[in-house]
């Protein structure tokens, strides 16, 4: 099987960033133990490092390599999602360990849903024995059919070539499509301005 170089690059970047962020976290803990006052500036640095660590862990799953048969524990997934803070809350209701390929696709679809929710909201994920279901609710949602066509089958189909509109900020839509193909999944999306439903 050919190497997935974009995923390998994602894994390498996340791996190399985790170490210095961990060192900064350790340094901040030592400063706190030394009795230094927790000023607003120190609190801002501490919170920023925690957020950066959480995003790197999230990106490592979403953009990193997912080898055949590799598993990821439910507790790790929930730990990652609990640490990520933003305008969108993720309610992960799937209750079992899963393959890293499944988790990769799920995390990429979370990013796709977040991009469609400029004012934030709630993303609920459920999984039964055969099907994943995502429900995203928020105010003034703005899904772009041309981008969603890269990640899932949608109706009606947009005109033109969706890849013509992909920017660096939207690359997760294209990657979700590739991850779905690699996992043998066929996501379908129902797009609305108050609710988006995705299943595979």
Automatic annotation (TrEMBL):
Record carries keyword Transcription: no
Keywords annotated in UniProt: Transferase
Molecular function via GO: transferase activity
Organism domain of life: Bacteria
InterPro entries: ChpT_C, HATPase_C_sf
A Pfam entry, by short name: HPTransfase
Positions of the Histidine phosphotransferase ChpT C-terminal domain: 75-186
Protein name: Histidine phosphotransferase
Source organism of the structure: Mesobaculum littorinae
